[in-house]
Amino acid sequence: MRNFVSYVIVMLCLSIMQSCAVKKRTDWLYAMGQDSLLNRANYGLKIMDMDKGTTLYSLNSNRFFIPASNTKLWTMYAGLQTFGDSIPGWSIAEDDKHIYLEPNGDPTFLNDEFPEQRVFELLKNSHKSLQLVLPENTAFGRFGSGWSWGTWQETYSPERSVMPIYNNMVRFYKEGNNFKAIPSFFNNLIEPPKDDDLRAAYSSVLRAETSNSYKVQKNSNRNSWIRPFTRLDNDTLAYMLLSDTLGRTNSKVRMSIVHNKPDNLIFSPVYTVATDTLFAKLMKRSDNFFAEQMMLMAGKIRYGAFADFGTISKLREDLFDGILDQGKWVDGSGLSRGNLISPEEFVKLLTVIYKGKDFERVKRILPHGNQGTLQGLYVGYEANIWAKTGTLADHLGLSGYLKTKKGNNLAFSFLINNFRGNASDYRRKMEEILIWIIECL
Predict the structure, then answer these.
(1) Does residue 139 belong to any structural domain of this protein?
(2) Which of 215, 346, 360, 421 could anchor a disulfide with 413, C-beta 3.0 to 4.6 Å?
């Protein structure tokens, strides 16, 4: 089987090299514009040589498309320009009797992907009274503008929050005939399963839409035991979860909520994780929750307040003036169909990154060929493509960098909207086109 795959790759490369020799660039790209599959959709493509500053190809590149998770490129750049080399997850101050702790929206807190929990270790070992500084009001909702209705219990769209904890999700497990939760705070909120549900080969835990009430029921094909929790019926849920967790490790911990920071104390940042580590996870697997929290954190750190629209508006003025001139940008993750951005604007952003100090960083953060959301694609071209994917129903996108076999450094943005048919066919068509560019330009 391995020999057969190698044979197919070799034959594909030979076919591409023959097409390079036979077809002129203009003829090949013209033929692409006549492609029967692509012409059943709306699409735009921009390819630019970043060293020469010349456009190699442009089709519908000034038109606006729903970019899906390509949107995360804007969030990534804002984060890299805001946080430095480490994420300032919390702000902290102390006096003789109290520790004041202000969350900055860090999604790594008590997230088991990040075993080093400096803030939690500090809190559980403290002999002082803990004062958690939480704002009474915030300028953002639980979900982003234009997100699909009905995704409130999907793991790809947990609620956004000032103080994420446990990834804002509950994990369930089976113990004998009982279902239990991590964190255990939710154990008493699980409706006892019926006998038929317990005997089923597969089961799911479903959450009520407006409360943290969980019900076990049988499933036909898989176990689904992870659900987001909601703060809709309890604004202090994060505080209660932290208090419960701390109480299980140190029964003497005393904690309360305050809404205003003391004027006479200076708060210092507590750095929780390397910025590149977090953004690599975010971009390689296209993590919507991390992206949304990074957007909120950028607003908190740069402008002093949690907001989504307010942060985006200010970022457009501060970081993206002359880059994102007309496109519509509404969330951090790209889950919203309200985002409308052109390939031209993506290529402008990619060129700014290329000419700045963070290009090598960004290459390490983005998926390369056959990695992350590009797994199984661009096999053998791991050193030639670094790009962010985007997928919503009937919408695809890919924007990033190409290093051609001739040594040219290209930026590209390829956005496809409103197609009908199999998304994998369109991904393979994009792959075919971009591999030709790598081999021939």
Answers:
(1) yes
(2) 346
CATH number at residue 331: 3.40.710.10
Do 138 and 39 share a structural domain? no
Please state, rounded to an integer, the average pLDDT across all residues of the chain.
93
Q: Are residues 429 and 297 in the same domain?
A: yes
Q: Are 335 and 342 in contact (CB under 8 A)?
A: no
Instruction: Give the three-state DSSP class for 422.
Output: coil
Closest CA to 400 of 378, 428, 422: 378
Residues 66 and 169 in one domain: no
For residue 321, name the pLDDT band (cuts at 50, 70, 90).
very high
341: part of which helix (H) or strand (E)? none
Mean pLDDT within 45-50:
98
Q: Per the structure block, which two tokens stand in for 293?
A: 């929290």
Domain boundary pick from 230, 248, 273: 273
Indicate whether 45 pLDDT > 80.
yes
* CA-atom Rg of the chain in angstroms: 24
Q: Which residue has the higher pLDDT, 197 or 269?
A: 269
Q: What is the pLDDT of residues 364-421, one digit of tens each?
A: 999 999 999 999 999 999 999 999 999 999 999 999 999 999 999 999 999 999 999 9
What is the count of structural domains for the chain?
2
The 10s digit of each residue's pLDDT in 171-229 is 999 888 788 999 999 999 999 888 877 778 888 999 999 999 999 988 878 888 999 99
Residues of the domain holding 218:
88-273
Note the pTM of the prediction, 2 decimals.
0.93
Residues 98 and 74 occupy one common structural domain: no
